Amino acid sequence: MTTNPNHDDWWPAPAKLNLMLRVVGRRPDGYHLLQTVFRFVDFADQIGFRVRGDGLIRRISGNDAVAESEDLMIRAARLLQRESGASLGVDISLVKNIPMGGGLGGGSSDAATVLVALNRLWDLDYSMDRLAELGLGLGADVPVFVRGQAAWAEGIGEALTPIDLPAAWYLVLMPPCHVSTADVFNDPELTRNAPRTTIRDFLAGGQENDCLPVVTSHYPDVAEAIRWLGKTAVARLTGTGGAVFAEFRHEAEARQLLQQVPEKFTAFVAKGLDQSPLLARIGL
User: If one looks up domain 9-163 in CATH, what number appears?
Assistant: First the structure.
């Protein structure tokens, strides 16, 4: 990963993996009811902050593919400023390491890091519960990044139960495509009434992803990544994809397979984390 040591104050925004995903229903407002397991990995965006006294909130550098007005980082900062009445502003810089459209949670993680960092830098003293509540208004995945603990999740992904997971390393493949989460969840072929499962069943090996058939049928590059990785490991899809991954007990195993990844796929090896590096950044 790259970073910029010259900015005033840098904070991590880690990627996540969904180790399983079941779609168990749908609310009247159209949101899908899920069961999933979130786990952080030691692969992250880096966000730099420089507090301003004039109240302005600006993106100095970052993801040029997203308009500043639509950027979750900027929306998070403006939401926190509006809710708190803070008079301070901030210049925000982003070093984008997490690929977009991969189901790795980069945008949600960036938003969560902005909320947690500015809560500290603006001396707001909001609780994690309050920050998570604000984050839910930005996206269903934001609260888990705010709370910073690997979690069993239900509801639309916001009802979180901390979970301890075995030590693991992951080889993550990013196919050369951008998967639309909205399209996946709107697809008529998506299973929406999967039977509910339990943490015990998950830990015993129930790690299916109900989005996999839809994603592989519409995105040939994802299907190819699943096939390639599945030749030597158990290949899984994170979230709605398109990133796919395999789990290993030892780093050396993951790195050995990394050397064999076809050139068309971006790939990296990362360590599974039960606690986000964002919590370490604030001393928790």
Answer: 3.30.230.10
